[in-house]
Amino acid sequence: MELAGILSQTGLEAGAAAAYAAPRLQRAPAVAVPPKASLDELRRIDAALARLREGSYGFCQICGDDIADDWLDQRPASPFCKSCAL
């Protein structure tokens, strides 16, 4: 199922968080990876979708600051800002 379908099932309005996050999560690069790594990535995506539903997507889970657009473009499922991730 596409991300847009998942978002519509969550009951989220087409608000700022959904509009902001959906394109980034859909642009995540598709690469051939071992099954365990695939499972880990799916867990990160599921967690990002949960944050989206909660309204906390785009905010660092450590310091609470906004996560920079360029960081989310590179790592759309990241729960941390660049400073806290490094």
Shape: globular
Report mean pLDDT, rounded to a whole number.
79
The rounded Rg comes to 13 Å
Tell me the number of strands.
0
Q: Give the topology string: H per helix, E per strand.
A: HHHHH
Number of helices: 5
What is the SS-derived class? mainly alpha
Main sheet? none
Helix content: 55-70%
Terminal Cα separation, in Å? 33 Å
* β-strand amount: under 5%
Given as residue ranges, the uncertain stretches (5+ residues, pLDDT < 50) are none
Describe this structure in words.
57% of the residues lie in helices and 0% in strands. With 86 residues, the chain is mainly α. It is globular and about 35 Å long. The model has no long low-confidence stretch (mean pLDDT 79).
Q: What's the gist of this structure?
A:
It contains five helices and no strands. It has 86 residues and is mostly helical. The mean pLDDT is 79.
Quick tags:
5 helices, 86 residues, mainly alpha, 57% helix
List the SSEs and their pairings.
Elements: H1 3-10, H2 16-26, H3 35-54, H4 69-74, H5 82-85
